[in-house]
Write a structure and sequence with these properties.
The chain has helices at residues 11-22, 38-47, 50-53, 92-109, 122-133, 145-160, 199-210, 212-220, 227-241, 286-304, and strands at 3-7, 28-32, 58-62, 73-76, 114-117, 140-142, 167-168, 171-172, 180-181, 187-188, 191-192, 246-255, 261-272, 275-279. It is an alpha/beta fold. Helix 1 (11-22) crosses helix 9 and helix 5 crosses helix 10.
Length: 307
């Protein structure tokens, strides 16, 4: 890609910018933030690592939305973060108001861009951005499942002592405590994880995956997770920028898949140059469908607060 923009130069935005720049994902990378000097400082700091990491990406930051002009992909990380004890839904009202203003600026200055939502609650904000833009679903999507699946794979590696390079995990549903870790579709070098783990160990992994963000937040107190979310964003952006056609769990608008419409949920998608190129509909067993529906109900409940 020629140009990618990141809105929000906080910890997630800055870490994402570092990963994207280091990987030479685009020629130009801009950061936008309402705080005077925050985006400029982050951009300059990262630019000064170029000789050490050997990348040619050029970075700049600013407070004027005009900096978004020409961006092919806009990553939205801006919004108020959770504090200990808060759910993702607790920040909904404030972050919707922030998002609406950002989306209006994107539509004005980068009307042909794709949008990758990261701010919480990501399922609802992805729906809101799609609703406000009126753009097709391939251009508006969210990051959640890549992070959740990475967390699950990490916990499987820690439980088994096996290499994380052989572990593939799949997590569906809303990005919250009701997310659905898919054990049938999670493997170690093609072998189902249940071959290696007891039911007790699996239960621990599922619980820890569902509360992975809250665990880090409780430990840090003054900051939520940012390195793992940034790495997850970078993986999605890489798949799009390099047209890799990767199968990645993505918050996507459903248009009949899983029997659902008018809702954004975490489902496996093929990501390529056009964004969400297709949604993959997995067959679900009754127990999996029950959990999926419970997660769906939570997302719909928050979406209904928008109307």
């Amino acid at each position: 890609m020629e140009k990618i923009a990141i809105i929000g130069a906080g910890r997630v935005g800055e870490s994402t910018a570092q990963f994207l720049a280091k990987n030479d994902t685009c020629r130009e990378l801009v950061l936008l933030d309402v705080r005077e000097g925050a985006a400029e400082g982050a951009a300059l700091d990262i630019q000064e690592t170029a000789p050490l990491f050997g990348f040619d990406t050029r970075l700049k930051g600013g407070t004027d939305a005009a900096i978004l002009s020409g961006a092919e992909l806009v990553v939205i990380t801006a919004g108020i973060p959770r504090k200990p004890g808060m759910s993702r839904s607790d920040v909904l009202d404030t972050n919707v108001a922030i998002l609406d203003k950002l989306v209006d600026g994107i539509m004005e200055h980068a009307p042909d861009a794709m949008l990758l939502l990261v701010s919480n609650p990501v399922d609802v904000l992805t729906y809101r951005a799609w609703q406000r833009t009126g753009w097709p679903r391939n251009r508006v999507f969210g990051q959640a499942g890549v992070l959740d699946s990475s967390r699950m794979a990490s916990f499987v590696a820690l439980e088994t002592g096996l290499s994380v390079n052989d572990i593939n995990a799949m997590v569906l549903g809303g990005h919250g405590d009701s997310m659905v870790p898919m054990l049938r579709y999670s493997t170690i070098n093609g072998i189902p994880v249940r071959h290696f783990l007891s039911e007790e160990a699996i239960a621990r992994i599922v619980e820890r995956t569902r509360h992975g963000g809250a665990e880090i937040l409780a430990l840090k107190q003054t900051s939520s997770a940012y390195d793992a979310p940034a790495a997850a964003i970078a993986a999605m952006v890489d798949a799009i920028a390099l047209d890799r056609k990767r199968v990645l769990p993505t918050v996507a608008l459903l248009e009949g898949e899983y029997g659902e419409r008018d809702v954004a949920m975490g489902v496996p998608c093929i990501l390529g140059r056009n964004g969400v190129e297709s949604v993959i509909e997995l067959p679900l067993e009754p127990s999996e469908r029950k959990e999926f529906d419970q997660s769906l109900a939570g997302v719909r409940n928050d979406i209904n607060r928008l109307k």
